[in-house]
Amino acid sequence: MKTTLTEENYLKALFHLVDNEGKVTINELSKFLNVKMPSVNNMMKKFAEKKWVIYETYKPLIVTENGRREAALVVRKHRLTEMFLVKKMNFGWENVHEIAEQLEHVHSQIFFDKMDEILDHPKFDPHGEPIPDKDGNIIAQDLQKLSSCGEGEMVVFASVTLSDDAFLTYLNDRKLLLNTKVKIIKIESFDKSMTIEIDGKKEILSKKATEKILVKK
């Protein structure tokens, strides 16, 4: 049975919010989706009937293996679309999220399989986030926030936790792109802003920005 657009939005929210124990609360979903609690409760009861979650009143939801897979497959469509728009249609990484939000609800599996084939089966999207495979499996990454790194460290910019236009344009303006090597020169004690060096050029990043940038050592 095909999932509805609303169901897919809930599934994607579960994907982003679920913790390491496979749990998420109704309140977290309500805030993330900006939907009233009674509506979230009603939808999660439907998800429980589909065996996507285990639902008990006043307890955190437990996302089942089936639910995790369904959620990952929605995310797969979104991230493949973003990659296609960047690699094959020359969109900037800051311009693809909203378009992918629309195309992710296309139900044709063949369409996305062909997109995957044309892209030569990419493992990551334009923002450095892993693309789930056809079975909903996802690559685990050992990344940390740039804000948690110390002065003198050399790291590689690997991903972002926020892909809105304004933030990505902010990174573009500073020539901070994926796989860029970054040296941390100084961290201000007052506001935790960070001076970094990229290809011999220094840039200053706000604490808000360093919280949203993920790196690997």
Give the topology.
Elements: H1 5-17, E1 23-24, H2 26-33, H3 37-49, E2 53-54, E3 61-63, H4 65-87, H5 97-103, H6 109-118, E4 144-145, E5 154-160, H7 165-173, E6 181-187, E7 194-198, E8 201-205, H8 207-212, E9 213-216
Antiparallel strand pairs: 1-3, 2-3, 4-9, 5-6, 5-9, 6-7, 7-8
Helix pairs in contact: 1-2, 1-4, 2-3, 4-5
GO cellular component, one term: cytoplasm
Protein name: Transcriptional regulator MntR
Keywords: Activator, Cytoplasm, DNA-binding, Manganese, Repressor, Transcription, Transcription regulation
Please compute the radius of gyration using only Cα atoms. 19 Å
CATH architecture of one domain: Roll
Q: Tell me the strand percentage band.
A: 15-25%
What is the fold named in CATH at topology level of one domain? SH3 type barrels
Q: How confident overall, as mean pLDDT?
A: 95
Q: Let me know the largest β-sheet.
A: 6 strands, antiparallel
Estimate the helix proportion, in percent.
Answer: 40-55%
- In DSSP terms, counting alpha (H) and pi (I) runs of 4 or more, how many helices? 8
Overall body shape: globular
User: Please, what is the CATH homologous superfamily of one domain?
Assistant: Ferrous iron transport protein A (FeoA)
- Taking the alpha carbons of the first and last residues, their distance comes to 44 Å
Which structural class should the secondary elements be placed in?
A: alpha+beta
CATH class of one domain: Mainly Beta
**Strand and helix order:** HEHHEEHHHEEHEEEHE
Which segments are poorly predicted (pLDDT under 50) over 5 or more consecutive residues?
none
The beta-strand count equals: 9
- Within the largest sheet, what's the order of strands? 4-9-5-6-7-8
Pfam families: Fe_dep_repr_C (PF02742), Fe_dep_repress (PF01325), FeoA (PF04023)
Family: Belongs to the DtxR/MntR family.
Protein name: Transcriptional regulator MntR
Subunit structure: Homodimer.
